[in-house]
Design brief:
Blueprint: H1 2-21, H2 33-38, H3 49-52, H4 69-82, H5 86-112, H6 118-130, H7 135-138, H8 145-163, H9 170-187, H10 192-204, H11 209-230, H12 249-265, H13 286-317, H14 319-332, H15 353-369, H16 373-397, H17 404-413, H18 419-431, H19 435-448, H20 453-465, H21 469-479, H22 486-501, H23 507-515, H24 520-532, H25 536-549, H26 554-566, H27 570-583, H28 588-599
Length: about 600
């Protein structure tokens, strides 16, 4: 009977997940998917899996501190199975989200037993899996790190709790829990919170010293393994932004609590770009925004006081709820604004904290309504209606991610009208050949943030195409001072010089490429420039030297094959194209080139010099 109840609960969770997220399969790649899916050379072959563990994310984009090899590993599988068909990628993200929900169900079941029925664990997992806050972690392919982290973290905690039960399976439970703790950290940096939560659970269970020493040893092994992988991986230092002043952090933390509270209970206005600081938007909008944020600060402080009161009450009568609140706090602290991050709020940051908050809330409500059938009935009706509404809201949210233009315009219309969104929209207009519209969007971005380096860079590129060289030069001079775009700004400055002087000299491009040694786009431009000025032999030599440092790039091998074919060195060209096919399982173009070269007659040897 118990197994049938469990199967029934899992079937409900599975059905709800696919029901609300099914429309996501119609969506395309958006935003960071360009860098992490379409341009990452390390996801294009199973042979490159070990190499993927030796590099941070955003290999050929703006450098980051994100070391998430398991996210890249899932992308490798998606690329092998689906190539660039986004539907399969979205389906994988739904599967991972579902796996995290199932893991949460088993964790809730383990935490709540034996005092609470399995139905409560199912209700918690069901509310969590359909909550629309998670769309930016599920519908957005690049957000997959959050579901992966949650799946491994919830699984680790469940297995670790099983290890405390003793018996024959305790050792295996400990081993697999340890591997899952490591998996959570390799999925996302915040995965370390699972390990911290585990020690809170050990204290709650009042475990003996022997158990503490055992888990301290296993934790040390996990941290050593993670550090060994992370700190030996190749990375470029990300550009440093202005850190949030310490005095402002408690204020932003209070505002974030109020913002998230509204999103949890009434997720009506959902968007990717959110900010609780006062100095955002157009200058004329900032005064009104500052007033609104002050009220939000007061509301946040009141909510924090209420959470403290809730924890003190739960500690006396509902200890599992109290420990779940502590777990939610630990999971939330890294994104609470007490530490300086690249944003002040983000919907997907609640992916893990919300799970523990729902456990605490469900247990507390159960305790409050335990002696009143009327209250229990009312709670059941409310919870059912809320779950249905959450599911409908999640289903409605899916088309917001349909394609890049839809994603950007709907984000802006929903209130995420930031400089960053305007820059992305401008880049889209530019890529589609609408330079006038692109320039308007770049100017809008600069009105919101006059020092926005990507807006300066993009506007300069458009102005160059419109042959407004003086205005472009001024913007490039400003952009070149920002580390995030310095290399690209230097490249455009060399193109600007070539356009104004009429001299196409590859030497400045080499100097630009050397600014970021392992940045392939810079080197690719340099090699192409060498070919343009009939220095193909030198291009071949230098490209071979580059491939000695980064031999995992299929695109680089294909470029080498193309250069060698033009030099009539067919055997070496075939070898280069063959290497490209090994490093990209869908490189059909290189396979076609190999077939053509194999059918081509051998080139005539060069005539001897007299």
């Amino acid at each position: 009977m118990k197994n049938l109840q469990r199967v029934g609960a899992l079937l409900v969770i599975i059905a709800a997940t696919f029901l609300v997220y099914w429309p996501a399969q119609r969506n395309e790649f958006v935003w960071d998917d360009t860098a992490l899916v379409q341009r990452d050379p390390l996801i294009r072959s199973w042979r490159l899996i070990p190499e993927g563990f030796r590099h941070f994310l955003f290999l050929d984009a703006t450098a980051s501190n994100f070391y998430r090899p398991l996210q890249r590993l899932t992308f490798t599988g998606d690329y092998a199975l689906h190539d660039r068909n986004a539907r399969g990628w979205h389906l994988t993200s739904i599967y991972v989200h579902l796996a995290a929900a199932v893991a949460l169900f088993f964790l809730a079941e383990k935490l709540l037993a034996p005092t609470v029925g399995r139905g409560w664990a199912c209700a918690i997992a069901l509310l969590w899996v359909v909550h629309p806050l998670h769309t930016s972690a599920v519908t957005y392919i690049s957000g997959r790190a959050d579901p992966l982290q949650a799946f491994f973290g919830f699984s680790a905690l469940t297995l670790a709790l099983h290890s405390l039960d003793g018996g024959k399976g305790a050792r295996f439970a400990t081993l697999f829990a340890t591997l899952c703790f490591l998996g959570a950290m390799l999925s996302k940096e915040a995965g370390i919170v699972a390990l911290l939560i585990w020690f809170i659970l050990l204290a709650w269970r009042r475990s003996p010293r022997a158990v503490w020493f055992k888990w301290l040893a296993w934790s040390a092994a996990v941290l050593a393994a993670y550090a060994g992988l992370r700190f030996t991986a190749e990375s470029r230092p990300p550009p440093r932004g202005e850190p949030t002043p310490f005095a402002a952090r408690p204020i932003l933390a209070a505002r974030a609590v109020a913002e998230y509270a509204g999103l949890i209970f009434a997720p009506v206005n959902l968007r990717m770009e959110r900010d609780v600081s006062s100095g955002v938007g157009l200058p004329q909008e900032r005064v009104a925004n500052a007033q609104q944020r002050e009220w939000q600060t007061l509301l946040g402080l009141g909510l924090i006081a209420g959470l403290v009161f809730w924890w003190r009450w739960a500690r006396r009568g509902v200890p599992v709820a109290a420990v779940s609140l502590l777990a939610a706090l630990v999971a939330y602290l890294p994104v609470s604004n007490l530490f300086s991050l690249n944003a002040t709020v983000a919907e997907h940051w609640l992916y893990v904290p919300l799970a523990f908050l729902l456990i605490a809330g469900a247990l507390s409500l159960r305790e409050i309504t335990a002696h009143s059938r009327a209250l229990i009935a009312a709670l059941g009706i409310f919870a059912t209606a809320w779950a249905v509404w959450l599911g409908v809201r999640t289903w409605q949210r899916q088309p917001d991610w349909k394609d890049q233009r839809t994603f950007l315009t709907r984000t802006i219309a929903a209130g995420g009208d930031s400089a960053r969104m305007r820059v992305n929209l401008a880049q889209l207009e530019s890529a589609e050949g609408r330079d006038d519209l692109a320039l308007d969007q770049f100017r809008e971005a600069l009105m919101r943030d006059p020092g926005q380096p990507f807006a300066q860079l993009g506007a300069a590129a458009v102005l160059m195409r419109l042959q407004k060289f003086e205005a472009a030069a001024s913007l490039l001079e400003k952009a070149a001072k920002h580390p995030a775009v310095a290399a690209e700004a230097s490249y455009l400055q060399t193109r600007l010089q070539a356009a104004t002087t009429g001299v196409d000299d590859p030497k400045p491009l080499r100097e630009v490429a050397l600014q970021a040694t392992n940045y392939w786009p810079g080197w690719r431009r340099y090699f192409a420039a060498l070919e343009r000025v009939d220095r193909r032999t030198e291009a071949v030599r230098q490209l071979r030297a580059f491939l000695e440092t980064q031999p995992f790039r299929a695109e680089s091998w294909a470029m080498l094959g193309d250069l060698l074919a033009k030099e009539h060195d067919y055997p070496q060209a075939i070898a280069a194209f063959t290497e490209a096919t090994k490093l990209d399982v869908h490189d059909d173009e290189s396979r076609q080139r190999i077939a053509i070269l194999e059918r081509s007659p051998a080139p005539e040897p060069p005539a001897p010099k007299e």
